[in-house]
Amino acid sequence: MSQDLTPESVIGPGQTLSSVTDKINDIVVKQKIRPGWVLGFFISFCLLNGFFLTVALLFKYGVGIWGITVPVGWGFDIINFVWWIGIGHAGTLISAILLLFRQDWRTSINRFAEAMTLFAVACAATYPILHMGRPEVGAYWVLPYPNFMGMWPQFRSPLMWDVFAISTYGLTSLLFWLVGLVPDFATLRDHSPHLWQRKIYGICSLGWRGSAVHWNRYETIYLILAGLATPLVLSVHTIVSFDFAIGIVPGWHTTIFPPYFVAGAIYSGFAMVLTLMIPTRYFFGLYDFITPRHLNAMAKVMLLTGLIVAYGYLIEGFIGWYSSSEYERFMLINRFVGPYRYFYWALLACNVVIPQLLWFRKLRRNVPFLFLISLIINTGMWLERFIIIVVSLSADFLPAAWGMYYPTTFDWTMFIGTIGLFFSLLFIFIRVLPLISVFEMRVLVTEEDHKRKGKPHA
Amino acid sequence: MKNESDNKMWRSIEEQEGKHVPQARFNPFNNDFLSRREFMEWSSGMVAVLSASACTRMPQQKIVPYNKTPEKVVPGKPLYFATTMTLNGRAIGVLAESHMGRPTKLDGNALHPASLGGSDAYAQAAVLGLYDPDRSQSLNMAGSPMYWENAAASLNAIAKNHLARRGEGFRILTEPVVSPSLAAQIDAFVAANPAAQWHQYEPVHRDTEREGALMAFGEDVASVYAFKPAEVVVSLDSDFLMEPANPRYARDFASNRTMLQGSHGMSRLYSAEASPTITGAKADNRIVARASEVEQIAAALAQACGVSVQGTPSVTAAHKKWVQAAAEDLKKHEGASLVVPGRWQTPLVHALAHAMNARLRNVGKTVRYTAPVEVHSVAQSDSIKRLALDMQAGKVETVLILGGNPVYNAPSDVKFSESLSKVKNRIHCGLYVDETASQCNYHIPEAHFLESWGDARAYDGTASLIQPLIAPLYGGKTYSEVLAAFSGDANAKSYDQVRAYWKGKAGGDFERSWTRWLNEGVVEGSASADKRVALRAEGSWAKVGRAPTATSMEVIFRPDATMFDGRFSNNGWLQEMPKPLSKLTWDNAAFVSAATAAALGIKNEQVIRIVWGGKSVDAPVWILPGHADNSVTLPLGYGRTHAGRLGTGTGFNAYSLRPSGSTWSFAGVEIAKTDKQYRLANTQSHANMEGRPIVRTATLAKAQKDHHWTHIHMHVPERLQNVDVGTAGGEHAPVAPAQYQWGMAINLSACNGCNSCVVACQAENNIPNVGKEEVIRGREMHWINLDRYYEGDTANPDTHFQPRMCVQCETAPCEVVCPVGATAHDNEGLNNMVYNRCVGTKYCSNNCPYKVRHFNFFEYTKTITPSMKMVQNPDVTVRGRGVMEKCTYCVQRISEARITAKNEGRKIRDGEVKTACQTACPSQAIFFGDISNPNSLVSKIKAESHNYGLLEELNTKPRTTYLGKVTNPNTALSAEKS
Amino acid sequence: MSQLFGRSANTLALLTISVVLLLGGIGVGLAYAIQGSSYVTEVNTFKAQPVPFSHQHHVGGLGIDCRYCHTSVETSAVAGVPPVDTCMNCHKMMWADAPMLKPIRDAHKTGEAIEWNQVNKVPEFVYFNHSAHINKGVSCVSCHGQVNEMPLMRKTQTLYMGFCLDCHRNPQANLRPVEAVTDMDWHPDEEWKKKDKLVHHGIHPKKNFEVHQLTNCSMCHR
């Protein structure tokens, strides 16, 4: 990567308006398909088919093909659901909140993060339906609509709230992303070599001509959507956390859950952004657009949210002791020394201990290290959901009813399958859309220019 | 001899058509994996499924009315008939529920002395056996199917041939016969053929009882115990609470320990046993003694009670203290005490028990003697041995085996199967083409007792009639019909035979009394009269042998808690019923104590080889707390080779080691470790209460001092404390008003963990079996979990039982979390479960603190064969895949009663609605009724000071509450236990 | 550079959007229509029967009471379809050799049961009890319609859950004096119209919970 980069700069030097445009657009319109891309897409597509096969079996035989049982009625299905939703959060946060806070470093990563959000939500959305014993009716019985049974769904149930939370979140993110894409579609339309490409991008760009009026409308709607999306960052995972907090299971029944889930979500979200950004940056040589400044900033966010999560664990422990509730206490002890103890220790290592290394400025700028730690945090956050769901359920109130949970092959194929879905979408995205917002980068270029020339920005 | 392939033709139709769908071995992958077509079909995905299910058209159904409506049948209303079930040489009167001619449920007959309304798990499960598709379904004569007429003819020919020689070479082998009419018939046959012989054998026999009686009195008598008046009971390795076909003992025993409604005293039970039983679990002072030590202990106890026994019994110090304490107690309660010898013990123990009961003046009060219940009581192990020897010696040309399965369960040393092959005509009549049938060249399918006429005598000699509820499904014949065929009467009907017999007995108007007997299910006044017996001088028999060597390994044989002697092998309900103490299903295991396991270095599920006298059997180990050291218990009844789809291949066959001599236990077996593992399906992994007040216990002394002893709350808000949930007002008023508020109370002092309720519930509520693999995954569906907790040291712990079913919380955590409102509260306080609304999120189960909800992870019911469908209760929905289910307080019975009451313009009477578990419970531990009515029995019970709600600190306000478990240990002993 | 799209593009775009929305609406509407159509509900669709039994003739014409054939309607959950014997009671004498009644006579001779096609049915997981309704003054007509005017039996109500709930939420409209439940052309007189039917049927107004109770799940589902 180019060395003459100042830590603060969000864009490499010598990047002109045109160079930016070409650099990013070429990935889509000019570049030949690379074997690396083909391989990657092929692998993820195979995994995706594993997912489809599992779903087929699921419909034929029922959820019994999973390891779930009584008492552990939720397993990988809900773990993965929460995990994916959590990952989704970074996108909205980056694009919406950071926009409102006028963080210029968001520009080069927001498009990518938003895409990631959408795909993560897509993965997450499969589980709430597929985890049902009777999805063929459950899929629409949970929706409120007048019917011949004279029945409504029950609005007291957190699962009901989920239905709305997730759909709202998915919809808003999609709109936000699409609107943000419109100007770039236009750019692509104008730079595409082939007519058919121009036609397609033309349709997508909704007749964007870049006139002042267009820009004016664009800015307005984009800001409004940002305003809408911001509360969602907090609400969605809050509601997801209610799935547990509303329950009376020791280890679920906790008021700390909403903030602690949201923090955890952002934590894992940023980790995932890094996990994806770093290789992309490397493969497409986007060093000038995704600079150490970005990585550094994201690392800091992870450090912060990681600390909040750690605080969450602390409080859980404290309450376990302070509540003087037999069951709460046992739940805690069970996590440390119970049959699943290794998972809990691993969780603490991944989410609390190791991330403390991010305090060191040097490490925050060490790209391979960041990549590694992002992977560790992703694992840790998955383990967190495993602990919350499985370990709490496996030993609750009556010892006679305790039982262990062992995932089956199909739990894994389902999980890996969604990862396949995620990456398949991602690979397609990289090929057909600019993975960095072109026009925003151009704005950035001019701003940087002004900075260098010491002139105030008009 | 027939080989496997021949047998196949005798299996069910389904199998012949290649549809091999074991009813309970559920594994989605064992039959067909996704075909390409199915794959396309299914991977075309949710959309297809959704659109398919969006617009549903109901299938066209036919109404097929009767041509002539049978009398008394009102469509949609069940009928009840009194009949009788026979097991292990004893009869129990049952009431059979019949829906449009299909018997669907058996319950105890309140008028029958052995039942008084209660029933055991075997009686509850028997109805499933009727519809078993693996039952023998056609006549097989010399290898080829044929009609009954021809069969009867050839049987008659055989008989004629023997008759010429006064019955020379003709043998009849039956299980002990308690049917007066059948016995009379056999006697007549033997009289006509003087040289013919009648043998009786059953693996779980009463030889030791018989010999004991002979030893003590010089004549064979049956002892009938009365537990009600017994203040002190000493059980010498006896399991009287599990007495086959006799829940009466459990009922009487419990009735003396209810601690309810002012009865603030309770009897005390001392128990010395080697292999843990539920009787031992209920004991107030239990010692663990190796089977061979019990005789010594008995002798010591007898001496302490003033019986002059020669020799000095060698008893350990700890046991001595127990003996002394027990002896004092016994003497203190002369005339109100009882010594019960176990049938697994030596004749001497029985004789000593008789002597003690005589000394303690118990005879006539807590124990009485009658003529044997069996019409001809014989020493069964000898009987089978003689038959085997004669067959071996070629003295037998024809053997008629009426029931029983000697090839499988005869003593290993008599080599029954090989001797049998020397017999020319091997005729077998039985319910299944079992091990014996497959070695016979003549097989006649037997009629199930619900298909046949007959009679049988109960433990006290009371006779009752067996009447059919359905015509033989598979053309079965009764024993008497088969016998009649021998004497040339092919068309004899056991109906006439039974009537003929009783016509002779009945004085006065026979028709009237016959009808009454059928209605009431009891032949009144038929109980056998007391028999005056004189104790022979102790000098002539009471000698205690030398003490056993403590080191040598002992093997103990016991009938299995669910399979009994193996006859129930193909009964899915019993196969999946967790055994009371080990909580194992689908297999038997070699039980050992923790200490012995440690000494041998073996772990649970590790396979060991038990070697003795050149024979050996491989068995997986299961450590059973409270088991005697240096002993291993091998439950009988498993390892069948021709049981049917479910029974075949489960567990190991302990008979292969069991000799005819000392048939219940003997020392000197070798145990060899193997490195094999065998997965056992256990339903309760954690037996420790973790110090939580789940089963709340107190000694009698404590209970009498502190009446609120069960109210030990863990962090319960003030306002919730010491309030009886449901009945009280204010905070605890029902969430919605209604005419009735249903509630249940379970008396843990009475519950003995016998499992009767579990099967009763399964039968009443169409609960599917899931099979071993699913049980291993913890997916068993029983609505009642009979929890077993241990307290104290593993060498000899206190054992607690707690039936755990949905407690119908007033403020139910499951209800708020269901997204579609499939589980909702109703005005009468029930927590309704609406299967057809359930979408299967499983959230309710996760949020249920009692974990009493059960989920249909697969289409468990799809494996039910057509004949099995007939046993299902038409008043209860059969649940499909992907829905949650749980105890409903038998809502179908409540609705039925409510509608009847409304139609008759009255209120539901107290006790009019009985849940299935309540009806079945032999010890009356379960109370159910309207708790808003202060005068209802259940309200009175719940008003008891030691009534408590499980997990009430969660403010779930359970409608089902428990009455704390009171025990009555001897304070002199309660300090230390052996 | 050259124009990618012609003038029509804008109109086309608008059109597409509106059409998509329209189709969505139609789809939903269609789903409702089909589920409510007589194709699915089988309301007012006739079914061929082995014997074209006419309620119009027997009930309307001859004035035979429902309970003459449906004997268990007052005592049991099921009303009961009459056995062949019941038919023969009369048809031994009248129309004794009408070809139309041959199946009946055959059944009577051979003992081979007659298979009628069920017309009014609720799903297996619904436990409807005739006696409970009959004895509380809910008329046959409420669910089965004017049977006395049906030459061939037909369904007059969907018997969907919604239909049941309408009445279970407010029974008043469908209550009659018990003695009038089988009366096909009963009309409420003024006095009855004024009356509180619940009270008449012994449901105390204070204990109005018994009405709420009618919507408990356990009322129909077990």
Task: Give a summary of the structure in a few sentences.
The complex is a heterotrimer of chains A (458), B (978) and C (222). With 458 residues, chain A is an all-alpha fold. Chain A has helices at 17-29, 35-61, 76-100, 107-130, 135-141, 158-191, 195-204, 212-245, 257-283, 292-322, 326-337, 341-353, 361-364, 367-394, 409-432, 438-453.
What structural class is derived from the secondary structure elements of chain B? Answer: alpha/beta
Largest sheet of chain A: none
Average pLDDT rating of chain A: 87
Largest interface: A-B, 62 and 69 residues
- Terminal Cα separation of chain A, in Å? 32 Å
What would you call the shape of chain A? Answer: globular
Task: Set down the secondary structure blueprint.
The complex is a heterotrimer of chains A (458), B (978) and C (222).
Chain A: H1 17-29, H2 35-61, H3 76-100, H4 107-130, H5 135-141, H6 158-191, H7 195-204, H8 212-245, H9 257-283, H10 292-322, H11 326-337, H12 341-353, H13 361-364, H14 367-394, H15 409-432, H16 438-453
Chain B: H1 4-8, H2 13-16, H3 36-43, H4 45-54, E1 62-63, E2 79-87, E3 90-99, E4 102-108, H5 121-130, E5 140-141, E6 144-145, H6 148-164, E7 170-174, H7 180-192, E8 197-200, H8 207-217, E9 222-225, E10 232-236, H9 247-255, E11 268-273, H10 278-282, E12 285-288, H11 291-304, H12 317-332, E13 337-341, H13 347-359, E14 367-370, H14 380-392, E15 398-402, H15 406-409, H16 416-420, E16 425-430, E17 442-445, E18 454-457, E19 463-466, H17 479-486, H18 494-505, H19 510-520, E20 554-558, H20 572-576, E21 584-585, E22 590-592, H21 594-600, E23 606-612, E24 615-623, E25 631-635, E26 665-667, E27 670-677, E28 681-682, E29 697-699, H22 700-705, E30 742-747, H23 756-764, H24 772-776, E31 785-791, E32 798-804, H25 813-817, E33 823-825, E34 831-833, H26 843-846, E35 854-855, H27 866-869, E36 884-885, H28 891-903, H29 916-920, E37 926-930, H30 937-942, E38 947-948, E39 960-963, E40 965-967, H31 971-974
Parallel strand pairs in B: 7-8, 7-15, 10-11, 10-13, 11-12, 15-16, 16-17, 20-25, 22-24, 29-40, 30-39
Antiparallel strand pairs in B: 2-3, 3-4, 5-6, 5-17, 9-14, 18-19, 20-26, 21-28, 23-24, 23-27, 30-37, 31-32, 33-34, 35-36, 38-39
Helix pairs in contact in B: 5-23, 7-17, 7-18, 8-13, 11-12, 11-13
Chain C: H1 8-36, H2 38-41, H3 55-61, H4 66-69, H5 84-91, H6 102-110, E1 116-117, H7 130-134, H8 140-144, H9 161-169, H10 190-194, H11 197-200, H12 209-213
Helix pairs in contact in C: 5-6
